[in-house]
Amino acid sequence: IFDTYRACGVRPYVEIGFMPEALSVKPQPYQHHWNPQARYSEIFTGWAYPPKDYAKWSELVYQWARHDVERYGRNEVTNWYWETWNEANIGYWQGNQEEFFRLHDSAVDAVRRALPEARVGGPDSAGGGTKFLREFLEHCLHATNFVTGRIGTPLDFVAFHAKGSPVFTNDHVRMGIANQLRNMDSAFKIIASFPELKNTPVIVGESDPDGCAACQGDQLGYRNGALYASYTAATVSRALQLAKREGVNLEGALTWAFEFEGQPLFAGFRVLATGGIDLPVLNVFRMLSKMRGQQLEVESDGAVPLETMLKAGVRGRPDVSAMASLDKNRLCVLLWHYHDDDVAGPEADVELTLVGLPSEIRSAQLQEFRIDARHSNAFTVWQSMGSPAQPTAEQLRELERAGQLTRLEEGKNLRITNSQSNLRLHLPRQSVSLVMIEWDGQSKPR
Prior knowledge:
With 446 residues, the chain is of the alpha/beta class. Helices cover 29% and strands 24% of the residues. The strands form 5 sheets. A 6-stranded parallel sheet has the order 1-2-3-4-7-8, with helices on one face. A 6-stranded antiparallel sheet has the order 11-12-13-18-15-16, covered by helices on one side. The chain has a two-stranded antiparallel sheet with strand order 5-6.
């Protein structure tokens, strides 16, 4: 798996878990047989328990980390993130809190023995700002380490999980963006309460619209289409706002998506691609990857206020807003038209005003990329084909093309007057647009 990551240019975010059968204090039953219709608690079998021997657990982690250093090189593995377990504050950990802290201390000590400069942290707990998160941070910063006997456990980053809560109501999906943002806000507040963590990187280890990628159901019908894309854009923007407000160092967020082999196309799991066909949400990440450099201030009279989103989500007027970045001679503006309710609505007529552009330039190259029902959307193309369970080779090629990021404008000249320019865009409901503007030379906007 790690070989494949590296071949694709991806660096692992390493989750140290779970418990091998031979080490578990309660090994039987060990293998679970969960399916989407089963109770989720059925998966918590022998792998979720503490070790019989913490020294052997530590040695196992050490050998694994040492193997990675030998296989991929010290310089590479130094850039990885290492954390212990998954959501140890709920059923994934069948021990008590003290046993988890001991497990974590043992794992961190083992990784650092293999690679002293390794990035270690955690706890990747569920539910945002929980009592567990606070007590984990207290342990790492102020309590006695179970392995070294000294005060403190290395903490190079803090991580937690934040989830939305979609429902199915009145024959449509209603997203729960407020729940995910509240998860983030409560966790940021706890982290900010520790002065020692002011500059420590914070990672949302799972940042998703719901809590079960492997589940299916009517309330999860957002996953295949453009709604997931517009939700993601709106969430990323508000996460940055919340982090800035609380004064924490938000370094990034991870989506939690699986690979389901042998499943039907567009089966409704939370994935980024289905049968090798990219879903619209993957194109949001492609858009974001084009945004580099300095984040710029954006004002929008169509934006739903942050406090309103925290309390009630986007249930009244839609959220029409943007975020922007500047990198040398490239200006990117990501715009979205989002609403919690997946129902039809009028498109948004957007006037985009750019100010402070380089005074000496008169024109620039404009490109626009779009995600909506008709662009960067293989799902709607598949539906237009009649939703074939086994597309022909020609249909597959068409679906693969439809899953790529669509460019609406290429090489169009943008006129600039008095360091300012204006654009008009028409954004359908549940859409995302990336406007990318580039100019020659070393001129810098004001």
